[in-house]
Amino acid sequence: MTRTGLQIPPTRNVRPYSTRRHLLWVSALLVSLVLVLLPWVFKLNGKPHADWQQFLGRFHPLAVHLPIGLLVLLPLLEAAGAVRPALREAAGFVLALTFAACLGTLALGYLLAYGSGDIGPTVTRHMWGGIGLSIVVLLCLLVRPAWASGATAPSSLQRLYPVLLTSALLLLVWTAHQGGSLTHGNNYLTEYMPALVKSVFALGNWRASAPPPGSVYADQIYSIIEHNCVTCHGDGKVEAGLRLNSYEQMMKGGHDGPVILPGMPDQSILIERVTLPADDKHFMPAGRSPLTSQQVALLRAWIAQGASPTAITLAGFALPVARKEKPIQPVGDYSGLMGEIRAMQTGQKAKLVPVSSKPSDGLVLNTIDVAPSFGDQQLVAFEKFAPYIVEAELGHTAITDASFQSLSTFKNLRALHLESTAINGSGLAKLSGLSQLTYLNLSDTKVTAAAVAPLSKMKNIVDLYTFNTPAQKQDAATDTPSTPARTQ
Amino acid sequence: MKQHPYCSDCEQELDVMNLPLPAGLKREWAALQTRRNFLSRSGNVLGWAALASLMGDRVLTGAAHAAAKTVAPGPSADTLKLPQFAPKAKRAIYLFMSGGPPQIDMLDYKPKLAALYDTDIPASVRGNQQLTGMTAGQARFPIAPSHWAFKQYGQSGTWISDLLPLTGKMADDLTFIKSTNTEAINHEPAIMLMNTGNMNPGKPCLGAWLAYGLGSMNDNLPTFVVLQTKVNPKENNQPVSSRLWSSGFLSSEYAGVGLRSGGDPVLFLSDPNGVDREVRRKMLDAVEEINRQTLQDIGDPETNARISQYEMAYRMQTSVPELVDLSKEPQSTWDLYGPDARQPGTFAYNCLLARRMAERNVRFVQVYKRGWDVHTDVTGTLPVLCAETDRGCYAMVTDLKRRGLLEDTLVIWAGEFGRTVYSQGGLSRENYGRDHHPRCFTTWMAGGGVRPGITYGETDDFSYNVVKDPVDVRDFNATILHCLGIEHDKLTFNFQGLDQKLTGPTPASVVQGLLA
User: Fold this and answer.
1) pTM, whole model, 2 decimals?
2) Cα angle value A245/A247/A249 (rounded, 5°)
3) Cβ of B359 under 8 Å from any chain A Cβ?
4) pLDDT digit string (tens) for B84-142?
5) Using CB atoms within 10 A as the burial measure, which of A238, A372, B102, B311 is most buried?
6) Interface test with chain B among A288, A294, A469, by most B beta carbons within 10 Å
7) Chain-chain contact of B404 with A419 (C-beta, under 8 angstroms)
8) Of B424, B510, B491, the residue nearest B142 (C-alpha)
């Protein structure tokens, strides 16, 4: 087909400066004014209003996808219209529909915020985004006929439409992101972002508000609250005037007064709300699964013992050692190398076993079947796959200290087993570049305290095992009560 | 069958396809109907893949295995896409206390019972529960407080009986579950339920599911090993049988391999006089050739299992003697496990062996200790039982921990049910008995995947009913699977028209509160 585009038959005599057009501009201005004034007429003052408003409002997250879908469809229709004029004709209708859907969704969204008494910077941003977006779509609606009609309109109006449509789309992305932050929490997108990307976006310290680790509050209480409460009671959204994302704010309480009464867990509203039956109107966290009894017990005990922000122990609770569980660093996809990996295994007889069905979890180097004959040379052969290997089980093998040269290339290594090997530790310093390494097992080797010393500089190593070596601490010697040789 | 035209007694031919049966079952039936279908099944990739998992790469490399060259190399974990997520534990050791340890005397501290000595248990506590035939006829149900004192241990302040001082010592490493409960009140159904998720025999046990789902990490040792502790004739030993480590409808190569508790760990493992390794290899190659021919002709997957088991036995000829050779264990081992550990078949010895197997990457080891069925003479037998097991448990967990193995090994300690607060038979200050009690019992786990130093769940003041956070057998098993990287709902095997799984058709959930 050799249809040349842009030949839209002038179906109607367009007169841009007619009375009718003036009327349209005036009414558009009025509608915009109403939208802009909405927040001043019905103030979002943090107080919940009628239940029916919330009932309707809760359809907002559902309805919102309709205008989004339509708006995203628009540029496609307009572009495709260059080839198929029928599509561009449809675009006008879709645009009108988008505007109608925008208004409806905006109304529902406002009902939700007004009805539930949600406030906070994110709520405000999301609201203004929605209002702004509706107005921009309205403007699009007004200027589009001029653009679509081709050369007959003044050139400035003609060029306005693509600009407006582009800004509508950008505004849409921003507003949608604000809305997403409200429902899923601020760090939803960034939480599992690879460190590299994070550093590009300078998002490394998104948890800047988190208290410094070391106290019961920081390590236990805050993490419970952070995961269960701050989506609604935080900086982004301040339901019932309560913010739980800092110690001071939490102790201050919300509209109902303080939620934590130090020493009196049973009188504390926080405990009361989280222990209500899940179908109770006041149950918290609303609409989510209840806290576990262990979490409730921890909160209760913490409050009972004074709700201190700095206490480091809690009587009656063995708190897990504050171990920074680093999120697992994904490795690249090795699926493409499976053929080579298989061939390699056939030659070496040592295996590369997937950690899980997800390739990004990496591979484990398993040598147990051929341990006595697996030496430094054999390890060198696996250097090719080093980026994908997260755990190397080299226990009981014939490797020596020369292998540390190879191992220094295993940059994604998290766990390294060297137990019952002939190493004396002289090459351990070569591991210093392995930033992911958290587990190092040197049990039953000849490593000395001096050889192990450089490892103390590697803060990432959490578990170092030196059982039955010259480097072993003295207390782990004999008799039944031998204490574990786990050095931190 | 054709009916005679004059025959009025028209008998409909039985057609399975028209019977009210589930569609899956009909498909299974249809698949078995034609010889062609049946033979095509013999090429079933899954069977080969499973075989390959046990034999590892030997299938591809062994020059003698000409036929095996066509085998798809993927291990079963490849085809099953397991583990679904990076697991915290790669292997597990299950210390099974068969008979039902009395939780009230060991781990579930009930101080208020002392004042209620010899009073009847309130009817409201017992409810309308049906009792066993052993106590249902009793006129009274007098409360028997524990004969032993309890102490608090560790940072967690866990209350533990004086019978288990060493368990107390490692309290901060353990995860106690006081609210485990089961539906079965008698040994056989209860022990089947714990192990296979079903009271009736015939289902694969936990170890078989793990072997099937996760495959082997060591080609030279079985994926799933069962160690039985020698019985003490003074104790009330309920039988345990190979049903408990059976692979059910899964291929029999996933069944547990039992090592004998005395003498040779595996009978006839060493070559007889005059047969050297070379001759043995040739013989096995010939047998395998014949077996493969049989497989071609008949297509019974069990032939595959047999072939792989012969190969496994051949490799075990060298790996097992090395496994049970304790001569290189350092003195610190014997200091820790105690002198009992030198005696094959004792609980301490089995614990040491379990640790050695964990080092060698055996996926699942189950140690059975019988004798916990203390219907009478609790004060006489319980101290013996506890003394036999306390040190072994402590030694194994401590040893795993100091060697860096507890990080990725899940240790489980459990029986099939608990015991009653009321005395079976006569109650005196010196002695009492306890009957089976399914409504609550205490278990513990340690190591990879579970949160150390906590107690999960609560029972009432009589240790009779769970009052908080119940953990039933399905949830217990789902949690174990989770620690090993398996979503219990996703590890299934289609059999008899149902996607069978360890946790059964009733919904089960992972107990989040137990996880690290």
Assistant:
1) 0.65
2) 70
3) yes
4) 889 999 999 999 999 999 999 999 999 999 999 999 999 899 888 888 888 888 889 99
5) B102
6) A294
7) yes
8) B424
